[in-house]
Specification:
binds zinc ion, about 0% helix, 8-stranded antiparallel sheet, mainly beta, about 170 residues
Length: about 170
């Protein structure tokens, strides 16, 4: 996973080539492994947590922003059941998946949503759920990706790394 362009302020540790140094492909959760990056192709444009501005203001950012001007497919991070598929205010077109064990993922600003996905439908891990877009409050084409565990939003870039092997 690489940072987009100017290597923003809240995207964590970045290596000399612009890579996010702590990246691993799966988030290990009580519901099993989830994709850390559920996009076809994207770079990291904003991280989780405080997003400051040059004027001194700022706000909390509840997920990861994964950007690609060309759009591309968004995939279900893991298997589960659809709890929401449709427009939600500033989030634009949203898909939310309940993976069981109190683990949920949410995908916002989608250009379109796989028409099969009604509330209650089952999805497989890696199944295309829609395409990246900029519906709702978005200044560019990107996915806003949220992961919650036990009702708390977690940092999708940091949470649930594979534990190092202990011998
Ligand atoms: Zn976002």
């Amino acid at each position: 996973m690489f940072a987009c362009g100017n290597w923003g302020s809240n995207i964590g540790e970045i290596g000399s080539r612009g890579e996010t140094t702590l990246y691993t492909p799966y988030i290990y959760t009580p519901a099993g492994a989830l994709l850390r990056n559920p996009t076809e192709v994207a770079c990291l444009s904003s991280g989780f947590g405080w997003r400051g501005s040059a004027t001194g203001g700022g706000r909390l950012h509840n997920g990861l922003d994964l950007a690609n001007r060309e759009g591309g497919f968004i995939y279900a991070a893991g298997e589960g059941r659809i709890t929401e598929a449709g427009p939600r205010g500033g989030y634009g077109n949203v898909v939310e998946i309940d993976h069981g064990h109190d683990v949920r993922t949410l995908y916002a600003h989608l250009d379109d949503i796989n028409p099969r996905l009604r509330r209650g439908a089952r999805v497989e891990a890696g199944e295309p759920i829609g395409r990246m877009g900029m519906t709702g409050n978005a200044t560019g084409v990107h996915l806003h990706y949220e992961v919650s565990v036990d009702g708390l939003l977690v940092d999708p870039l940091q949470y649930g790394r594979e534990a190092p092997a202990i011998f």
